[in-house]
Each structure stands twice: as structure tokens, then as C-alpha cells.
Amino acid sequence: xxxxxxxxxxxxxxxxxxxxxxxxxxxxxxxxxxxxxxxxxxxxxxxxxxxxxxxxxxxxxxxxxxxxxxxxxxxxxxxxxxxxxxxxxxxxxxxxxxxxxxxxxxxxxxxxxxxxxxxxxxxxxxxxxxxxxxxxxxxxxxxxxxxxxxxxxxxxxxxxxxxxxxxxxxxxxxxxxxxxxxxxxxxxxxxxxxxxxxxxxxxxxxxxxxxxxxxxxxxxxxxxxxxxxxxxxxxxxxxxxxxxxxxxxxxxxxxxxxxxxxxxxxxxxxxxxxxxxxxxxxxxxxxxxxxxxxxxxxxxxxxxxxxxxxxxxxxxxxxxxxxxxx
Length: 326
Known about the structure:
This protein has 326 residues and is of the alpha+beta class. It has two domains: 22-230, Arylamine N-acetyltransferase fold (2-Layer Sandwich), CATH 3.30.2140; 244-325, Immunoglobulin-like (Sandwich). Helix content is 37%, strand content 29%. The chain has helices spanning 3-33, 43-53, 57-71, 76-80, 93-114, 119-132, 176-179, 203-209, 224-229, 235-239, and strands at residues 73-74, 116-117, 137-144, 160-167, 170-174, 181-184, 189-192, 210-212, 216-217, 220-221, 232-233, 244-246, 251-254, 258-265, 273-276, 282-284, 286-291, 294-301, 308-313, 316-325. Strands 11, 13, 15, 16, 19 and 20 form a six-stranded mixed β-sheet that branches. A four-stranded antiparallel β-sheet has the order 5-4-3-8. The longest helix has 31 residues, at 3-33. The N and C termini lie far apart (56 Å).
């Protein structure tokens, strides 16, 4: 076998082994962190305990994520009624940096002590603990995509923040704000629901729901148009690696009576696949075909279809599209 092929095979197997080992390590971390106290006197005490209990950077990065997600709750009232931004004066660059650090330290301590925060508090606390444990960590600010109205939205807003942490020679994407739970509009409150999928999320999935203000990731440009006009994917899609192959746009332009082809990877005929019509009634897809490791099916676009169409797999929402008449 040529030397080049041997090297390529070795690199591929080594990459698979590293990823498998990484997954193995972090799966056990949550069980240990769940037994931690809900409160520590200082962030230094928490970082010290994590440092003693876990040896690898991967475990420590996950431990920080898990502890914050288990114990810090999203402050929805603060989100609805944000505090006034307080400015400050300074006479030198050094004084400016000191005051910025003080504002950031206050934000961290407030989140840590009150056990409540919005995304700025989550990300600042994650970075603080990571850096105490010797991990390189950054805060990224940008736009997020969370509801149907975001499909095809014209404006990009800086309304969210997340982290990147450097582990095992790779930057890992982390959104601990979304890892701690979600807002249930039917109940009118936050629901605490730990979700591991926003730790080391696959960039393809992550950037379907996040758009950085810089417009780039690790030096590569990210398409603003693809983000705004792409379909809305849900947590189940990420959890089960349901890749949406078709349509590739989140905006479907149709005439009444058109049939639109959908293709989703990693589902089969054994799954129950349906959508909701404009009366919110479930409609099972007809004559699905297994194709290339997934399922292909068509949906008739008629007067029963509303402004949006959401595909469900086994009762879980997977992906949504905006329907536009030609």
C-alpha cells in the first residue's frame, strides 16, 4: 500500500479514536457533577474542586458546562426587562480596562451568587471558570434562530452569546445558556431541562442556529444569507443527527397544488413522520421511500398548508420551513 494512503488511514483512525475517547469521558462527568453542591463560596472553590476531580481538559470543560447548566437558571424577567446600561468615565486606557474588568467581575459574581443570569452571565461565568482551570476560552456574540418568524428574517441582531473552548487541539462550540433549559410559552415560564447537545456541538448544526457578529468561524466566512434563509432545526435534529438534505432552503416558494420533496437522513419507514396542517392537525406523510440512509417523501402544497410547515418524527419536531406563494 502506498505510504500516502497508510498515513491517511492512520490519521482517520486516530481522529475517530480521539472523538470516541472524548465522548466516553464526558458521558461520565455529568453523573459526578450532579452530586456537587448547588452553591460554593467562591468561583475559585468550584474551580479547585473540578480541578481535583477531573484530570483532562475535556472532562473539566464539560464539568463547567454541566455545573452551570444544572445550577444557574435563565432569568427570563431580566430578559424581558433588561437593566439600564451604566456607562463610566476614564482618564486612561489602563483605567478603562480596570473598569471593564470590574463590570465583568460583577456580572460573574451576580450570576454565581444569585443562580440566575441571561446569556451574558452564563458565558462570562463559563469563561471565568475555564480560565481558572487553564483552558483557553472565548465569548462570541451574535444572532440566534429560535422560532418560525426567524426563517427569512431580514435583519441580523446581536441578541445572544456563547463560548468557544480549546480542548484536545480543537475549538469546541459551547452554548450553556441553551443547555440549561428552555422557555415554555404554553406555561409562560422557564423549564429546567439539562441538554448536553450544546456542548461541543457539530458546527454545521450550531451555525444553523447561531450567527456570530464577526461573520466568521476560525477564519472561514459564514453565510449570513444561508443562516437567515435556512430552515429552522430543533434539538431533536441535533440529538439524532437528522440531516436535512432537501429542501436546502428554509423558504419554499410554491403554487397551489405543487408537490415538494423532502429528504431527511437517519430516519426510516419505522419512524412515524407527519406534519401539521394550518388547523394544527397531524397529517401522516404518504408513500415515504427509504433512500441513501434516510427517508424521502412528498407533501402536497394546497389550501390545507399554512404559512409554515413543521416536520415531526415520532412526535418530536425536527425541522420547519416557511411557505411562500409564487
